[in-house]
């Protein structure tokens, strides 16, 4: 999946770090029902057992605690979830995504439904970190960078660059799991509220 | 509350700003009773540190009384605490190895981008020291929000005055770590560049760790006097060639260990220093590095170089060849304050380390801008300024 080999080279580096311009096609071929043609992937080490991390993530309703631009995720039953995401000018955009992969303690995958304005697929993988250092959490995201109004939504959703958002969300997930809270440099409630917008 | 805020190069003011609030479970709010101006605050004052914003509250050496605690704090209201300048979570891999200044979680996620781009990995958060280090409000204020208050602050026993323990927040552990990184062996001669607070604490620490001789280097006579008080031999570099003196004073061998406690704003009219200054002012380099070059050249073969001094960016003309050929060891880094605090508090209580000698001035917080000016302009007489938010303003004469 997100960490597979390029297939053409004898090496162990993940596909997300490849210089190959076709890397997203290779990654898409490895995801179930993949949507989108732009790939980002990031790994973070978290000093907790992988089952704990999986359990937190599998309760998708909790993800907005560290995903800054996701307002809420509601279960619709049957592995379908409605994502409500912040958009420019105080608006929101919604889509429905279905869980496509569920391996307890190992991996969760999801993909947006056919009529979604923001086509995207994602996968998060939990592996034991070597040397007893906890868990490697790898998030892989495929998305279509669209134009027009949806382009603006995407820009906000991913703070212009999806790699930045994935990286920051993973850091916040790590903070929440290791320290029980998300770090902030604010010193008043009002300042922190402003930072969130 | 009142707080010392940064507005630009050589422009700091005491402003009225909102009081801090508990934002996370492990937070505590501290009412500041003593807070010092650090030599590294002068790097901010002089505009050397990027990612500062107008209105930022400065100050990373402070202590005070706990007035409010979050649900996850282990502190109690009324306790007196000294707060480490590093903001570290105590739970990540690095904290578990006591590498607190390398904490993964001390920086807000968004601020980690700058540090990661500059250094490859983000570092711990720091109080009052730019947005690259988290944008946290500092302690030169009446109150401060302290994150991770269950692992950072150390509780001070009743009856021990502020001035004795305040420097546990930064400069005492920094001087101690510098000496520890010099891996001092019995019989060693240790040379210390810079007799500011960190250098002077490194002198004391080196003797406590068994150094036979310590040679302290500066150009301010008063600071050299202080070093001599702790048993150091001294070199005034305005009158003496440092490399030649160090070799003559060690029988041609060179010091076994060299500690650079000067850093990115080295003074002195040396050819390479002037060149560095031109590059800094034309934005082609950030650090002026004369002292670390001298340390590498003077150090004995197979010796150790310890660098507590603050550097921020890139240098050139680093004597990599001398460093390699002589087989030197270089150890450096921001201080793992939390690791050293308990043992150093004991050393203070037992009278093994003297800290109060350093304080040359005490003044109210309201006079902080004057304090910055004095510290900047009169480094001979002004060794350390401690701001006391509760202190009365002096009556006009």
UniProtKB/TrEMBL annotation, chain A:
Region (Disordered): 1-23
Biased amino acid composition, Polar residues: 1-18
InterPro entries: COQ10_START, ORF3, START-like_dom_sf
Domain Coenzyme Q-binding protein COQ10 START span(s) in chain numbering: 46-163
Domain of life according to the entry: Bacteria
Family note: Belongs to the ribosome association toxin RatA family.
Protein known as: SRPBCC family protein
């Amino acid at each position: 999946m997100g960490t597979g080999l390029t297939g053409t080279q004898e090496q162990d580096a993940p596909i997300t770090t490849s210089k190959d311009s076709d890397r997203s096609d290779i990654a898409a071929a490895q995801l179930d029902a993949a949507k989108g043609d732009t790939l980002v992937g990031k790994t973070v080490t978290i000093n907790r057992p992988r089952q704990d991390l999986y359990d937190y993530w599998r309760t998708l309703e909790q993800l907005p605690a560290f995903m800054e631009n996701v307002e809420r995720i509601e279960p619709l039953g049957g592995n379908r979830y409605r994502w409500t995401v912040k958009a420019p000018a105080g608006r929101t955009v919604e889509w429905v995504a279905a869980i496509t992969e569920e391996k307890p303690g190992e991996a969760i995958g999801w993909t947006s439904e056919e009529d979604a304005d923001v086509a995207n697929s994602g996968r998060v993988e939990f592996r034991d970190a070597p040397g007893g250092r906890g868990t490697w959490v790898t998030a892989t995201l495929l998305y279509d960078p669209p134009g027009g109004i949806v382009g603006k939504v995407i820009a906000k959703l991913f703070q212009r660059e999806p790699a930045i958002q994935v990286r920051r969300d993973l850091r916040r997930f790590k903070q929440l799991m290791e320290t029980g809270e998300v770090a902030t440099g604010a010193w008043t409630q009002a300042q922190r509220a402003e930072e969130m917008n | 509350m009142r707080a010392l805020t940064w507005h630009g190069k050589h422009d700091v003011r005491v402003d009225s700003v909102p009081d801090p609030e508990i934002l996370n479970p492990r937070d505590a709010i501290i009412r500041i009773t003593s807070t010092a101006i650090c030599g590294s605050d002068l790097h901010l004052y002089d505009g050397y540190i990027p990612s500062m914003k107008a209105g930022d509250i400065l100050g990373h050496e402070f202590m005070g009384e706990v007035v409010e605690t979050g649900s996850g704090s282990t502190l109690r209201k009324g306790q007196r605490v000294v707060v480490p300048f590093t903001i570290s979570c105590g739970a990540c891999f690095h904290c578990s190895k006591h590498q607190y200044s390398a904490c993964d979680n001390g920086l807000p996620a968004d601020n980690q981008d700058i540090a990661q781009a500059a250094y490859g990995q983000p570092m711990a958060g720091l109080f009052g020291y730019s947005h690259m280090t988290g944008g946290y409000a500092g302690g030169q204020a009446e109150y401060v929000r302290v994150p991770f208050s269950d692992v950072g602050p150390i509780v001070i026993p009743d009856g021990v005055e502020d001035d004795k323990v305040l420097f546990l927040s930064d400069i005492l552990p920094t001087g101690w770590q510098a000496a520890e990184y010099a891996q001092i062996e019995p019989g060693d001669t240790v040379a210390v560049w810079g007799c500011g607070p960190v250098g002077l604490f490194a002198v004391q620490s080196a003797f406590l760790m068994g150094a036979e001789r310590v040679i302290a280097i500066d150009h301010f006579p008063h600071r050299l006097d202080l070093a001599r008080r702790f048993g150091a031999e001294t070199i005034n570099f305005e009158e003496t060639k440092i490399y030649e003196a160090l070799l003559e004073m060690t029988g041609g061998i060179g010091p076994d260990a060299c500690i650079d406690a000067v850093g990115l704003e080295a003074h002195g009219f040396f050819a390479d220093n002037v060149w560095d200054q031109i590059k800094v002012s034309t934005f082609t380099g950030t650090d002026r590095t004369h002292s670390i070059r001298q340390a590498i050249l003077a150090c004995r073969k197979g010796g150790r170089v310890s660098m507590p001094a603050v550097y921020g960016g890139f240098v050139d003309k680093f004597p990599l060849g001398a460093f390699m050929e002589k087989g030197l060891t270089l150890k450096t880094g921001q201080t793992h304050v939390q690791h050293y605090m308990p043992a150093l508090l004991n050393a203070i209580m037992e009278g093994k380390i003297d800290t109060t000698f350093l304080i040359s001035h005490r003044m109210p917080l309201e006079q902080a801008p004057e304090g910055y000016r004095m510290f900047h302009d009169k480094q001979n007489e002004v060794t350390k300024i401690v701001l006391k938010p509760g202190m009365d303003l002096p009556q006009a004469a």
